[in-house]
Structures
1.
Amino acid sequence: MSTVQTNPREVMLARRRRTMIAAGILSSLLTVGLLLLVLLPGIGTPGAAEAVDGTRPVAIGDPKAATIVPGAGWEVTGAGSDEVRLVSPDHGLTVRISPAPSGKPAEVLAAELGADAGAGSEPGSGADKIRTETLASKLAVAHLDSATRVSAAVGDDRRAVLLGVELSEPDAKQAKRDLASYRPALVALVESIRLG
Amino acid sequence: MATTWQWRGLALALVTALIAGTAACAREPDAGWKPPVAQGPGGVSLLAAVKSTGQKGANTSGQQSQNPKNTRTVGAAIPDPAKIGIVSGRIRNDSLPIQARYVYLPGVPKFNERVSELLWTAIKATGKPYAPQAFPVGAGLGARGCVDGSTERTPAELLLDKATGPAGGSGTAITCSLLGAFGPYVGVRFRTVTGTAETPKQGVKPADAPAKVVADRTTTLYANVRTGEVSDDATRWREEAPAELWRDTVSALRTRHGGLSNAPVAAPGKAQLALAAAALEGAETADDGGLDVTFGPGVAAPELAGLGTDATKDRTSVHVPAKTAESWAAPSEQQRLAAADQPFVGMPAGSWTAPVDCTLVPCVAVTYDDGPSKHTGELLDTLKSKQALATFFMLGNAASGSPDLVRRAAAEGQELASHTMTHPDLTTLSLAAASAQVKDAAAIIGKLSGREVTMYRPPYGAVNEKVLRAVGWPAILWSVDTNDWREPGPDALVQRSVPVLEPGGIVLFHDTHVDSVKTAGRVIDGLRDRGFTLATVSQLFDGKVPAGRVSSR
């Protein structure tokens, strides 16, 4: 029988080499993965943000219930999902849009606010303060406004989408903007909604 | 060696991963992005809210146009109105009471008629009898014409300011602002405020003093000095412009009041349309060539009511982009807007035709006898520089000897009349000789000046009924004789004329005496300080000089 003589130093170096190679491969995979996330938004997770060009409709809901056309520079997260999130270019305003159960906008909004109130998220539903307007798009909008938040439903007699609009701190504060200063942008968003 | 290479590779990979990870997690806010502003389809956007507290622009009469916020000039500003020939005026009358600051544009009768109409309308509105009034020396009425920015002041400020308001701050204040002179256009804004302002308490600015305003009206006139045409607020815009302005304003208000719709606004009713028309009448040209327009309180629409918003209680100011303003403009207004950057072409040549209405302003006629002389040129210089008119009773022989001075005096608007050929006492001559003395001189002066001469002044004031009948023309005497031929000195000449003249008076000087010529400027300034307007003898009588002896109006 012959005995293989192994140098302990060589053994240690070989182990370290294997560890290094494994770490290198792992970090390279991680890098490639992250780059894919950046370059190909929408891959893997619906949470990827995309800045839009102001012309392309963004789908709301899966299956698609409506579309919206955010202005240039707005960031869109979750396009084509049941919760689309829009962030203004200055990050001061966030708009969440989701398909709503069937019904007129005012009914849908009242139900939504009632549900919220039931969940204890609002001191009162404020359903009696809901205001309804006809849009240039011929759809109707029902909305309830406060100084920092707008809850709205946009739709026709049968279908609607729900919008939750709120100031995003600290960016809105930093830009010295209140909800009123974003309202024309919000009007443009609401007017761009199309059902189906 | 291999170990070092691997460490470097690992470090590089980790740094790359870190950067990529950071980029994937967050985008930087775009600090340069600005939310769009609320605006109607025509691009009309709301300016900062304007309070209406009975102060600036308050329209308590409910019938007349409200006023804009601040003055912006169109085209070139007018640093020295007199230099381009604008004639400045001022009226104070404490019996009504009223004070008026205004301008006339020589050679533009339609403009001047509008100004006179505006002044008479305010006077007649008092319902009191009116006669022009002059004031004692030191009245401070020499500063005349428009007051920069005065049309944008609060009613209280206008009424309380001694430069613009009626005596005691109660009555009528008329003021004007020169908006600009460009191309062939001169723009002037007039404002008439009637009411009572209380003297402010200590620490309170006059602008903030309490005021009860009965009427507050603004009128903007643009005169084309080439064509003589005048456009006003009411004719500046196309018929549909007020409705479009109203719709755009309501649309912008809808967004301000929490609306989320951009749907077209329904057509305005009659009252709302009138509100928009009044706002458009007071429109100001903004720095960008657009318009700043201010609505009075009371803007209401179903679209606003649906948002729980009642009629506006304050004034509402909006900005109209240049492109939209241009589309609203009537053809004449479009031409004016196109000329906004051009230099002013100047007043019509020989423009000494600004009206003098001696039933409106206190007039005096300053007259000079015995010329022309070697001093007459200097006197004409003074009169021209002060935009003052006088009447020259010239000797026929002297006129023949200085034809250029005769022509110049006539060309500069001075009135010329006969003072006989050789300065005889007409009552000592045969009637034929007396008549020839007067009319021969008149013929010479008329030939040189190109104007018909139909008045005379008898030398020494000597005239009788026979001579009056023989000549058949008005014999112009005087109400104040300075006796300047006695050479009393400049101060005495001023004292003998300025303090003693009454409205309608005629004062006698001689342009053959150097002191009379040298003091002409002081006399003119002194008379104007008392509120007088200098008129020719003919103007004193509105062109209808009565026959016989005439010594005052």
2.
Amino acid sequence: MSYIAPKDYAADPEIVAKILRTVSGQLELDWMKRVGEPAAFRPSQPTRGLTLDDINQGGYAPDKLPDVIRHNFSMAPRGALLPPGLPSLGYRVNRKSDVWADVAASLFEEAKSRRWAPARDVPWAALDPVPHGEQHELALRQLATGLISTGLVCCDLAASWEWRMNQEFHEIKYLLCAQMFDAARIAEAFRKRALYGGGSLGVDSRPLGELLKSVFLSETYPEASAAMNLLVFSWVQALGRHWAATATNAADLYLGTQLAQDATRFLSYGVDHVRSHLHARPLQAEALADHLDLCENAWVGTLGAPEVIEPLVLLSGGFEPVAAFYARTADEYFRRCDAAGLGDRRDASALTSFLRMLQGDSR
Amino acid sequence: MSYYGSADYRYNDDLALRMRDIKKGNLDLGWLKAGTESRKFAAENKKRGLTYMDLNQGSYGYDDLPELNRKTDVWAYKVASFTEEAMSRQWDATTDVPWNDLDKYERSDEIEIAFAQLCTFFTEVELIATDLPAKWLWRMNNQFSEVKHFIATQAMDEARHAEVFRKRALAGGVGLMEALPQTEHSLKAILDGDTYSEASAFMHLLAEGNVLTMFRFSEFISPTPVDKRIFQLVMQDEARHVSYGMQHLKWIMDHAPEQKEQLHRALDEGENVTINQFDAALTECMIVLAGKGTRPEQIQEGIKIVGNMQAKQITEYFHRLERAGFAERIPRSKFTPMMADLGIGQGVKAAL
């Protein structure tokens, strides 16, 4: 046990005396006078309910937070009165511009309102009997195997940062919990998809593992966020759309659509977060660009791995549609980087060389 | 950057040759011969859908997982069904609570102040149950994916709890009140647990067990039906978390009884800081709510009700220890002599 209390409270006569005083009816009631800023917030749109944005007003709003939090390292909620004696819980991510995105509160609301459960919401019976050829089915299971790894590692990544963040950023912490939940659901849904019926998992992909490791071991939270939310989820969203577009049945259509929808939340946070971060700290652009260089290189390895590209070739009816799919995915990713304030990354990126290679251009 | 990939794909002949081959239609297709086990998986109960329990077969199942990275350190009986339940019982604090109805119910200032203090406490403590699971989740082997998934659902549940109590405090007219230092020391002790099992015993079993009893009690003393609804929603989540903690402890008792002394020591300290959590503001706000005011006769009534609730917290904790196969903890518990000192030990004994 790392934390040992300063005394044995069970043998502390003061505590027993305090309890006995209360039990005998001698209440202090001082706390009733220690009231903070009054608040009686209501839903701005009754049909939408009481959102986080509705209660983020006055002293409870995040906009007056300083960039560096120095006043609270406890779990006291933002806006509560802070008495002396609050301990530090050891939070290590205390700079607002390292985590913040204005859109985070709305994305958390969306994550809750668009909840779904793979066990009962996917029309599994649509896979009985297998509605397409055996190779098509094996290709889907292979891609599902990669999505399981991706979901598990993204769940790990969100978890590894959430507990280090200061409680003053509770909207971001809530969103990271939703990300853990969403990413775990990706792993669950695609594990079930791969195993349903006479199913099996495919082979593990070493290049995908290297990509995920590069992302997971990011040194700072902004680097982790750019790598996971912008890069990995550009890929996941594209896969979701492709899965839905090539679906031969209601179950795959549903899975692909939900995957793309959930991935879009990661992307939205990533773009807004990186943009806010660079707006506040423009000198960090180079560090993020360096990190994305390395992750894009690992992404190229994944895109070119036989266990990734070949199932896509089988599902898409040839090489050319996959090359077009890759080009579209990369283009969307580059546009997002640009929108996030990272500039045009096309020229510097290993992805561009790879796409040229696919087009037969050896420049 | 801590990790550099094994290849630079800008200058990679293997990749270039492979792409040329695939472009020509010469696919490797090695991945088609994955050699993984093929089995027939289907939903046992179509109404319930395809659950983790349905996938618990052969090499894909969890029953025969080896003690790699110690399954005992994280596993719990029924964890797959807890995860499925969590997935199916998600709710939304924004839309599932009738916030506008708060205006329909008259509340005295002192009741609203007391309720705001209670909500401040719940907002403060609920996020420990996101931080602690998150602290351990990413260190767990992915072979234990059902446990990791359960922990991810718990993090989401607790974020929603912190959200709903913050919203209630900020919708009631009073706003947030004062944070509680003694409570914070307890939270710190949970977060700093040396092992996952120690932290789980303290958080899931002891702390969340106490909070579960408080939720039931708070539903009973809620000033409005809107507040009752909140407690009904959070209670079902909290019960799931406590059940996981109990089943994890039971798994340890059955598979690694040598860890008992270590868990005893963790709970010795956990109970110690819990006793210090007897904070005037927290206890008194519940007394005011239970007695429905601050007049002497109301205070006396409140003390009676809150006293019963506190005794119930201990008896339920002891019951859980018994059900987890850890009844030997009860005579060693720091609560036992304390209850005797306060003259409510007999009540606890009788309840057992």
3.
Amino acid sequence: MKFNRNILFIMLLAVVTEVQASIEVFACEPEWAALAKELGGDRLNVYSATTSMQDPHHIQARPSLIAKARRADLLVCSGAELESGWLPLLLRKSGNASIQPNQPGNFMAADFIEKRDVPEKMDRSMGDVHTEGNPHIHTSPENILLVADALYERLGEIDAENRADYLARYQSFEKQWRQSLEQWKAKAAVLSGANIVTHHTYWTYLNEWADMHVLATLEPVPGVSPSSSYLAKVKKQLSHQELKMILHVSYVSDRPSQWLAEQTGAAVVALPATVDYQGGQTLSQWFDDLIQRLVGVI
Amino acid sequence: MCSQSIVAYSATEEELEKKIESLEQRLTVVEKSPTSQPASQTSANSFNPAISVILEGAYASYKNNPEDYELPGYALGGEAELASEGFSLGHSEIILSSNIDDKFFGQFTLALAEHDGATELEIEEAFFETLSLDYGFTIRGGRFYSGIGYLNQQHRHAWDFYDAPLIYRGLFGNQYLDDGLRLSYVVPADLYVELGTEVFAGGKYPAGGNHSDVGSWTAFVNVGGDIGVSHSWQSGVSYWAADDIEREYGGHDHGGVGEVPQFTGDSQIIGFNAIYKWAPYGNYREQNLKLQFEYFIRDEEGDLVLLNSSPLESSSLNSKQDGWYAQAVWQFVRTWSVGLRLDMVDSDNSGSDAAVLKEAGLASAGHEPKRASIMAQWQPSEYSRIRLQYNRDESYQLTDDQVYLQYTFSMGAHGAHQY
């Protein structure tokens, strides 16, 4: 009997330690999965709900996502209503109290950034606008640092035992990131003042960081595909200005961008929407790639 | 004494320096960041529930008279009748939903529909749901669509076709909802496994009558997952049972006196469903394919009475009804989808008085109802949709051609749709 009880105790302990072995992180987008991995390393088991080929506004609340949300200790998402079409349903169906809104396990990156494009008035005729402002905050390398600062603290809150470790990892990440920032800034200097057209208001934060001027957006309103008459209007509007490039995000059709490129002679730059986390890319590699692609056409 | 305190002092000085250093570091971070604390721009109306209004209407055209509609082998009830010919408003809905606090979520759906010239207000849903039971458990209480089947839980504005599958029309009068409680549990595994059970008052079609405790109950299991990044699936089995039912079917005019068939007895339903979706790279917005299949079988035993008949006509009833539908919807570009649906139902009903069964519509007379539907829809955004649908309807002996032109618009906040 006593023997049995010991075995039971050991088994229980094994179960408990297995549960504690790693913190389950559910990232809504690959960029936050990559950032969490930088700050938590092997302590975290990080899952990204989307890939860089998916439009994060339009994700289905699939069974597999509910199953992942069920077991998550920490949710890391962009917020600012980017995921409002699917995340609330996932949270409700998950039966997981620790990741509900306003719990420590619910981390919304956009809460830590001063957002752009905050609309003064709202109307659905304006398309996929977000009351809280542009949610694609990860496109500026400076924003990444701000989110990293808040995220390592949150990790320390969730997993208090290893707080010092998260701090140490954050400090080394910050140091490296600041060095990279200087290099990127130097490299992107040639982009300053360049006139561009973007497909969606996806790259707002990047454009601001690189000091590029957005002359027009190919979508008449966010999230709505351009008609040919609208494209013709854009072309006419651009006729007096020197257009350097057309930024195109990987998850939408590139036909409108290609058409405008043929008409104006500007280069189409296809930018991967985010980190290819599933393919093993890091945040810094992604920014290297972005800046290389932009500078390449100047 | 003195040297000791100096040592202590220098130690604290070192500590202080470290602290200052780290504070300085933090300060630069703070300076860089305009807001290091969550910047929530809360206005008074962010506390209001999310409100959405669904506008739905259609133009319907039939070859046969829609009032002659029958589904032999199935006595119809609930909302099974066909939409009236010409222009008509469908279900207009007002949906309010919100997290009530950190523990509960609530949703209220009011449906407005016109029946025979009178506007009817109907509380379609009014439920709360727990957010913090944890360990995968959720309790829902109030009035809600039952978790049985796949289509049953979806609001009709989320359906891929204008009308309900024949088996839903025959068994549930389109959709099954009631007042009660649901307990569901999501298993902590990579494979999605949801177990659920519900208890209901049992007053709503296809149950019915007054029950002092539980009138009907259900149990269901749903499993699902992904296959690679482009494919996903879900499959479920569900069970519904109700005892001591007192169910009245839709009125049936006979010689000026409204004879209403009434069933008293026990009923149980078993359902199976399977859903598969494909989207290149999992990017559903641009292109996706959805395959959907459901099968139900119902077993009933009891008595049938024709109310208002004189002398009172009655019969025993032993009924077996089953049916399925299969559909495919292909959204080939962002704004256009096409779909195909096949329906088939069958029945095997017997009783002590075949004439009473016939009168109630429960005699199939060897006819196996079926229907084929095609549809095309234009959805300029996720908030608007215009659909054209054609049914070749062989529900009863006289084949009908049915055409629907339907619009569905949603205004305001729009909650996420279920998978």
4.
Amino acid sequence: MIRAFKVVLCVLLLACCALAQTQLNGAGATFPYPIYSKWFNEYHNLHSDIQINYQSIGSGGGIRQVTAGTVDFGASDGPMTDEQLAQSKVKLLHVPTVLGAVVPAYNIPGVSGEVKFTPDILAGIFLGKITNWSDASIAKVNPDIKFPSQAITVAHRSDGSGTTYIWTDYLSKISPDWRDTVGKGTSVKWPVGVGGKGNEGVAGLIRQLPGSIGYIELIYALQNKINYGSVRNSSGQFIKASLESTTAAAAGVKVPADFRVSITNSPAKTAYPIASFTWLLIPTNPTDQNKGKILKDFLFWMLDQGQSMTEALSYAPLPKAVVELEKAAITKQVH
Amino acid sequence: MLKQPGDASAQKLSPWRRAINLAATWFAIGAAVLVIVPLLAIFVYLLIKGAGSVNLAFLTQTPKPPGELGGGMANSIVGTGIILAVASIVGVPLGIGCGIYLAEYGRGRFGDLVRFTADVLNGVPSIVIGIAVYSLIVLREKHFSAFSGGVALGIMMIPTIARATEEMLLMVPNVVREAALGLGIPKWRTTLSISLRTASAGVITGCMLAFARVAGETAPLLFTAFGNQFWSLKLNQPMAALSLQVFTYAISPYDDWHRQAWAGALILIVLIVAAVGAVRIVTSRGMLKGAS
Amino acid sequence: MSGTVNEMNSPDSFNPSEKPATAIPTLAQTATQRKAISASSVLERIRQTHPRSSRMPDAAFAVLIVLTAISVFAIVAFVLWELVDKSKLSLHQFGLAFFYGHDWDPVNGDFGAMPFIYGTLVSSALALFIAVPLSIGVAVYVTEMCPIRLRAIISFLVELLAAIPSVIYGLWGIFVLAPLLREYVEPFLAKSLGWTGFFGGPMYGIGMLAAGIILSIMVVPIIASITREVLTAVPQSQREAVLALGATRWEMIRMGVLRNARIGILGGIILGLGRALGETMAVTMVIGNRPEVSKSLFAPGYTMASAIANQFTEATGDLYLSALVEIGLALFLVTLIVNALARLLVWSITGGRAGRARA
């Protein structure tokens, strides 16, 4: 132990003589962690003296850390409220980076195909009103599937998360019942179901429990090869989540100047209805000018080269129109 | 119950007593088996899942983004070592000192209070300690640091070490202390060189238990050490840790990262075992061992 | 080390044949005594040339030790202060109703901690219920019954359990334990003990039972290791005395060893209980995270530590954060009360004296 300590001490001394590196720290959402880590890695390869260290401690954590000034930027799956922005000591700009989709994934014994869901069915299941897969309403939109008489087990998130926010935001829009009894938020009072920790936890629950249904990010469903269904959007089409349908959701919504917008239940014809932006929270008047410059440079790189890296990791790129809006906003507002 | 001499061999044990003796023996053996079984199950599971991913790249490289094969947890391994070193520096002296106090000086009311608070500290969830250290150090410094992570883990080590030290010191017979005092050895010397030395095996067990426990903790490091994708050896900057990296990878969607998470957990356990083993070897070779 | 302890017998122990310890030279038989004598001659010289040389170091040492004790106290006081300070908002809003409220509704700002308190108490009780007999059994086996060669290996293996990160326990719990429970154990329990009401309802695999089992596995190394150390430290004379009375091995263990080690074992149990109350990661992965009070052990539950761990990083809104910190405060209070009760138990056993085999 003592010897090991001496070794560590020597290494520490050596490290102090190492090249000067600028390190930026960011904290926030877990959903975009894979694409962010790819971007920061690529950026580091291009600029070897710049290290951007991002840790996914959760959207709420990201908001808190960036407003407290302990990190250089934040990241969140859900936009900050007016109240939070007003209270923040640090003035922030929401910069959308990629799009994500949340899908209804299920484990129904004997059913391997794609199940179609209407908004009412989803709300009914998650409210606890529809309790068995053999329910008539499900059979009505899925005439060619034979459902077993199996009790439905709902799997939801136990931890607060942007994924929950997107899902409950959608349910609140399409179900007045849900809006009045449960509401939307990163953490809500679920009428029924068991909670798993993280997307991985919910995916694990779905895989384990026969007859279960839960909501997970598209990327988790794809990577874990879990069956997920299509959802009927506001134009009446049954859309299965994909990168195209997710980007289409953003294209169909008018994006405000501060980029804080919800794109669930998008009016576009080919849009997947349960999609959302994820944002980086960038201080507009950073105390460290050098770091501010680096961040600005990174953002422009992200909007150009970065966007081409998203599809390989199952993230949907931003629509071109939004990219242009962002470039203008960053030039104008971030100093 | 007192038997006459010469009776011993002739007395027959009642069948009831013999049955209880047998039952107790089997229970003890069964308990040992029942405890070892889940350990082996978990370990085998870990080995199956993780051993394949432990290679040279894993041990020497920093994390790579998803989609790129390779990458490793080298910075996390070193980071864990540094944070645990800081934690031990904070926790072991305070824990042993507290244990000495409770055993030698604090047999009164304040001693009871300190013992009580140490037990309560043991029950505080690790995340609450992380939050407390966050308010104390991180918010004030305005940045995350390995140092704050070490402090948080060190605080968590204190109750286990203090309690173990106290229990072991109390099992040292009073005659030993009295003999030493009778020889004119001052109390401080008695406590350190004689009582503590006699109790050393148990104290070290306590330290190792505490060390092993905090080495696997994730929650308190979330708000203190924060984690780091790159090489960093500075104490006042965020630092990578195996437990954090394992956690991040385990909850990700990628199979490659999952395998690396298992490998990371395996490495963590190996490191802990190595540290515990090294301490046991060093102490049994005469450095701290009492006379026997 | 044990050799030293065994030789130094006290007047309390059952050994009427030994002469009382008087002049040092006549009892100089063990290495320690020989070392003490040589040390004493050196020290005699020091004392003759430096009178009162021990007073300053003694005082300094005492002050140092007391400082460490005070620092531990200060740390706990600081944590408590932090908890109270950050939960002021929630305390003000809900008052005492927080501790017995049943609803946990972040959207509507309605917070009640009763389901979490219940979950913590039940899971910890279950964990101890399983772990204590197992730990004492293992410790007894290792110290009293085990062949010497196996002793080190088994002790090492038990301590190894403490080294496994809690995240791994959680993952193993989800992928191995939960399916095992769901497929085999829970149906069996439902059939045989379902009438008690503790084993009913839908069988998910995850739930209070899974959490209790995982916690017990995590707590065993602590209790077992400390028990083992304490049992080893019991003087050999105690064992020999009981055996001399014609006891069977189990009776010898019960009367000669366990009785003397009682307090130490209880200390180990309290340490284990502390771990169970505060364990976060592993529990949160297998308990189902449903804030509901339910009699059945198959049902999902929620513990205080899990609630904080799950929701703290994402919590937005001051009241929400404050309520979470107040759960931390509630856990602190629960730990306080449980420890106080344990202390009362010890006090009642020892009859108010420091009932230890102070050999």
